[in-house]
Design goal:
By secondary structure, the chain is of the alpha+beta class. The chain has a single domain, classed as 2-Layer Sandwich (Ribosomal Protein S8, Chain: A, domain 1). It is 26% helix and 47% strand. It has 2 helices and 5 strands, in the order E-H-E-E-E-E-H. The protein has helices at residues 13-22, 69-80; strands spanning 2-9, 26-28, 32-35, 38-50, 53-64. Strands 1-5-4-3-2 form a 5-stranded antiparallel sheet, covered by helices on one side. A hairpin with a 3-residue loop joins strand 2 and strand 3 (32-35). The longest helix is centred in the last third of the chain and has 12 residues, at 69-80. The radius of gyration is 13 Å and the shape is globular. The N and C termini lie far apart (33 Å).
């Protein structure tokens, strides 16, 4: 079992949840998503601030089968490469 744990800026927790559901996950509770090969937790955390710039951020934690972790990361990265807001 492989683990990914990251703080990701510029994406709200609800949108990350939608991405995980598009990847086949099922929402369980407020911040957990499950799939037969992975499970993830997404939590909104305090905004990141530099001077007057304020950016939302989330804490992202996923555990996935070793066999699919690379594919999972590639699919998620494509979803996170989004333009605009």
């Amino acid at each position: 079992m492989a683990t990914i744990e990251r703080v990701i800026r510029g994406i709200p927790a609800w949108l990350m949840g939608e991405y995980l559901q598009e990847m086949g996950g099922t929402r369980v509770g407020d911040d957990r998503y499950t799939h037969p090969q992975w499970s993830a937790t997404v939590q909104q955390i305090a905004d990141y601030q530099i001077g007057s710039l304020v950016v939302g951020q989330i804490h992202f934690h996923v555990e996935a089968d070793d066999a699919i972790i690379t594919q999972f990361q590639k699919r998620l990265e494509l979803k996170l490469l989004r333009g605009g807001g």
